[in-house]
Amino acid sequence: GDSVTQMEGPVTLSEEAFLTINCTYTATGYPSLFWYVQYPGEGLQLLLKATKADDKGSNKGFEATYRKETTSFHLEKGSVQVSDSAVYFCALRANTGNQFYFGTGTSLTVIP
Amino acid sequence: EPEVTQTPSHQVTQMGQEVILRCVPISNHLYFYWYRQILGQKVEFLVSFYNNEISEKSEIFDDQFSVERPDGSNFTLKIRSTKLEDSAMYFCASSDHRAGGGELFFGEGSRLTVL
Predict the structure, then answer these.
(1) Could you give the CA distance from residue B79 to residue B10 in angstroms, rounded to a whole number?
(2) Alpha carbons A40 and B20: distance in angstroms, whole number
């Protein structure tokens, strides 16, 4: 079945460091891919998405490219800030059916 | 900006009691979901709902759980005879697409504590 495998955390970085959170997926066909972010005490918010191969989603300095050949959707940011401290979830939505599949989440802490 | 709203934000209940969590999805959305997140664990799919019926459900969503859309705006999750392990954050979500690029819009969550 469809699934998402996400890099284990927690991740601790210094401010202005480069961030990569790996995400790979298993799905039939061509799913849509998402990164959601959960700030402390809040719900999940969409960070970015990509709906077809080679699409790049971007938002707030974060980027992720839909790589069909490697079935990956890694999240990157060139220079993290303390305010980026949150839990990041990779997710996919199959192009049939209406269920979303989430990864386990990666906790990021950015220290000044 | 339209948003998904959930009530209550936090509910404490005794084991064995029934709980109803309420959600108001975004008004033009057609697909509704419940997810839960046990503290420190992954976000788990419970159920999806479309056209006034359950479209998919997980193995977690057993006879203890039920969902309902009692009117044109609310979407409820009922948990009968709550157990300690039902303590979690429950997220409602809605979407306006059946498949493809439609994203999920989540509510802020309802924290359920079962004592």
Answers:
(1) 15
(2) 25
CB contact under 8 A, A98 and B31: yes
Closest CA–CA distance from residue B14 to any residue of chain A (Å): 24
As given in the structure block, the two tokens for residue A28 are 């039939």
Distance between A24 CA and the closest CA of chain B, angstroms? 16
| Chain segment A27-73, per-residue pLDDT in tens | 988 899 999 999 987 888 999 999 999 999 999 999 999 999 999 99
B31 residue type, one letter: Y
CA B115, CA B87: separation in Å to the nearest integer?
9
Residue B17 to residues A52, A111, B35, B114, Cα–Cα distance (Å): 46, 43, 20, 9
Burial tier of A75 (Cβ tally within 10 Å: 0-12, 13-18, 19+):
buried
Paired sense of beta strands A11-14 and A106-111, if any: parallel
